[in-house]
């Protein structure tokens, strides 16, 4: 049975086959796994001459899941889980290039499972997914690019990660342009005011880009998000 090695510096330490070592589905589980991998690789790297772990862009036969910078991590609040096939929970993470994950999140996979365990069963919620870095983080002239907008999500369904509601914008896969660097894909969850009839204007329905998200939030009195998270990815061939 083929096994995957962690790196050339740690070739004497072998990882379990992917079929035997599923990626944890929760952020807490991912953090524990990340800590264990970093500790093991750090100890072995020191013995092998101090070779460092690869960054998310570097090819590796084993995936290394890197947390966001402290600045970008500040956006992640409230334990909102975002779960993609095989990857598991991706909140506050870079999407790694290994196993073609960046290509698959851009070309293959549909909408993620979004779960908020603290949702009030008697309330409804609004879920927004946007890219604030369109066409690039250095020049975000088309901020915010709307990738998903769902209203009237029952709290009971949200607790289970079952997004059922009124879809105002169908899910659009993350598709960063070539050579535009990393893009943030931000999910915001709002508690919906009672009896609110939320809708997009005809002008908003025409285009996904340069969406005035703040005005939308203000118009329907959504207030501050009850939870938010983000993940970063870039064009899969860069």
Distance between the termini: 32 Å
- Which structural class should the secondary elements be placed in? alpha+beta
Biggest sheet statistics:
5 strands, antiparallel
Backbone CA Rg: 19 Å
Bulk shape: globular
- Weakly predicted, low-confidence segments: 1-23, 35-54
The total strand number stands at 10
Per DSSP, what share of the residues sits in E-state strands of 2 or more residues? 15-25%
Chain-averaged pLDDT: 83
> Would you list the SSEs in sequence order as H and E?
EEHHEEHEEEHEEHHE
Helix content: 10-25%
Count of helix runs: 6
Which strand order do you get reading across the main beta sheet?
8-7-6-9-10
How would you describe the overall organization of this protein?
By secondary structure, this protein is α+β, with helices and mostly antiparallel strands. It has helices spanning 27-47, 70-73, 101-107, 155-160, 202-206, 213-219, and strands spanning 4-5, 14-15, 81-84, 88-89, 113-115, 124-131, 145-154, 166-169, 183-191, 227-233. It has a 5-stranded antiparallel β-sheet. Strand 3 and strand 4 form a beta hairpin. The longest helix has 21 residues, at 27-47. It is globular. The relative contact order is 0.16.
Task: Throw out a few tags for this protein.
238 residues, alpha+beta, 5-stranded antiparallel β-sheet, 3-stranded antiparallel β-sheet, globular, disordered N terminus
